[in-house]
Amino acid sequence: MGKGSIRDKISGEELLRLLRDNLRVDWREYVALVAYETDGNPFAVLAAVVLSQNTNDKNSIRAYLKLRQTIGVTPEAILEASYDDLVEAIREAGLPRQKASALKALAEAVVRWGGENYLLKAPPEELREKLMSIRGIGPKTADVFLSLVRKAPGVFAVDTHAARVARRWGLVGEKAGYDEISKALYNYFGPGNSEEAHRLIIALGRTYCKARRPRCRECPLRSVCPSAQ
DNA sequence: TTCCGGGTCC
DNA sequence: GGACCCGGAA
């Protein structure tokens, strides 16, 4: 099965260019960016990323907008709302009880940390650790925030697309865990490229490198990908 | 009616 | 490896 790595065919920089030239990223489709652009406050972005967990963007954007309209997306508003109202507001995102609890815990933590300013000022590594200590926030959610809002160096958020694509590119083995995949992608694309590369990989994963029945024959990377058929 | 997409915790 | 969940497509 040793299929080799895409690294042997093309540099990360060249691959980035190839992706950029062949895929269109619709930024409005990403709930984190919707939150970033419409509200801009760091808590709202984090809340939006929580809503997007295990949920397609259509559902998470709808849930975000409803939350925004019925309760509000600030730590104070989330803490003030009843659990049941919160669940109702975010229902369309799926896993609403789990996410309502996560939002409550996040709001509580942000208040304990002295407010949203901490999210903007804390050293990224310390913040990552603290975010991940909140039940309902894992590495992906923390890393999306750190790279999108904090532009933290050394971060590459790994969602289901990034993990699958990294495996198919031969950058990591089949059993690689989150941190290993994240490091491999970061090192390959290089500093400063995580955000763009991540968006493009998501677009690639949706359009060509799909979980089932990948469309290798039409894929713009077919000549360099070790998994192309 | 079943299937799909999509992270975190246990 | 199972539990948690929805809307929409097949």
From TrEMBL:
Enzyme Commission number: 4.2.99.18
InterPro entries named in the record: DNA_glycosylase, Endonuclease3_FeS-loop_motif, Endouclease-III_FeS-bd_BS, HhH-GPD_domain, HhH_base_excis_C
Residues of the HhH-GPD domain: 51-207
Cofactors that this protein relies on: [4Fe-4S] cluster
Protein family according to the UniProt entry: Belongs to the Nth/MutY family.
PANTHER family reported in the protein's UniProt record: A/G-SPECIFIC ADENINE GLYCOSYLASE/ENDONUCLEASE III (PTHR10359), ENDONUCLEASE III (PTHR10359:SF18)
Protein name from the UniProt record: Endonuclease III
Lineage: Archaea, Thermoproteota, Thermoprotei, Desulfurococcales, Desulfurococcaceae
